Amino acid sequence: MSLAAQAFLKRNHLPSSYLETAKRWFEPLLQQFSNQYQPNNVPMILGINGSQGSGKSTLADYLCSIITERHAITAVSLSMDDFYLTRAEREHLAQTIHPLLRTRGVPGTHDVSLAIKTIEQLRAGLDTEIPRFDKSIDDRVTGSQVDKVSGPVGLIVFEGWCLGALPQTQTELEDPINDLERLEDDKGIWRQYINRALATDYRELFTLIDQTIMLRAPSFDTIFQWRWQQEMKMIERLQDSDRSGVMTEEQVLRFIQYFQRITEHSLEEMPRRSQHLFQLEADRQISDYQQPKAQC
């Protein structure tokens, strides 16, 4: 086992058996990059779409680790989560547009301009600050906690739960799909705002992606368990530190309703637009791999 693989397993608290599974399913991605990589080319941007808890950040870390090891290049992993608006900025949206925009997560609560600027700087080989968002304090970190990348980059992996999502039609937006929309967005202002964001700023961001990888959950029903497992890991990681930003089980149940509309829409329509489609089971194990876009 290489030092890079050992470090990857340690960072993600994974058993060594993960490497065998990853090699089986993700080698086509690695091989494709190896075949296309040229040192002086503009870096490829791989986008990863997947619901909360689907393994997006783990896959991004794996791809970057192995590509760096194979080609001795800088590979950078970006998360849409790190481009959330600050808490103060979301508070302003909550007061001026709709109270639900106080909660991070949905389109309209990211700093899209910052995400585009960051990607463009990386592609140009400039020294680049990589924003980081600390969910335990529900705010973006500053100062020495901000990561920095220097020099040329060979690969950018950009992951996010709504990455590549399409807006819905006005007819699809009319009826609320859960209690959150029914009770707290009865006039549809919040979901209209989200939809407009997807149709404008986010569309510009998503066009930067060269190829899309989808980690497709079996259904929205499985996502609560996955999201709650994430929260438990955060609690374990924080130990005796401040846990004020950590959610209870009841809060997680409410929280995932923010994502239901776009998640269900993406589960339905995105598979046929993806270059790499990995079907997940309830235990998050991959059961199938297809290349839908390549077959068109």
Tags for this entry?
single chain, 296 residues, alpha/beta, Rossmann fold, 10 strands, globular
Detailed description of the structure:
- It is a single chain.
- By secondary structure, this protein is an alpha/beta fold.
- It has a single domain (3-278), classed as Rossmann fold (3-Layer(aba) Sandwich).
- The chain has helices at 3-12, 17-36, 56-71, 87-96, 112-123, 170-174, 179-184, 189-199, 201-206, 223-238, 249-255, 260-269, 292-295, and strands spanning 44-50, 75-79, 128-130, 133-134, 139-140, 147-149, 155-160, 211-216, 276-280, 286-290.
- A six-stranded mixed sheet has the order 2-7-1-8-9-10, with helices on both faces. Strands 3-6 form a two-stranded antiparallel ribbon. Strands 4-5 form a two-stranded antiparallel sheet.
- α2 (17-36) crosses α3 (56-71).
- The N and C termini lie far apart (38 Å).
Arithmetic mean of pLDDT: 91
Second-tier CATH architecture: 3-Layer(aba) Sandwich
Please give the share of residues in helix.
40-55%
Contiguous low-pLDDT stretches (5 residues minimum) are none
**Rg (C-alpha, Å):** 19 Å
- CATH class category label: Alpha Beta
User: What is the makeup of the main sheet?
Assistant: 6 strands, mixed
Measured between the Cα atoms of the first and last residue, the distance is 38 Å
Secondary-structure-based class equals alpha/beta
Q: Could you say what the CATH topology is called?
A: Rossmann fold
Number of strands: 10
Outline = globular
Supply the number of structural domains: 1
H and E order: HHEHEHHEEEEEHHHHEHHHEEH
What topology, given as strand order, has the largest sheet? 2-7-1-8-9-10
- Write the CATH homologous superfamily: P-loop containing nucleotide triphosphate hydrolases
The amount of beta strand, in percent, is: 5-15%
Helical run tally: 13
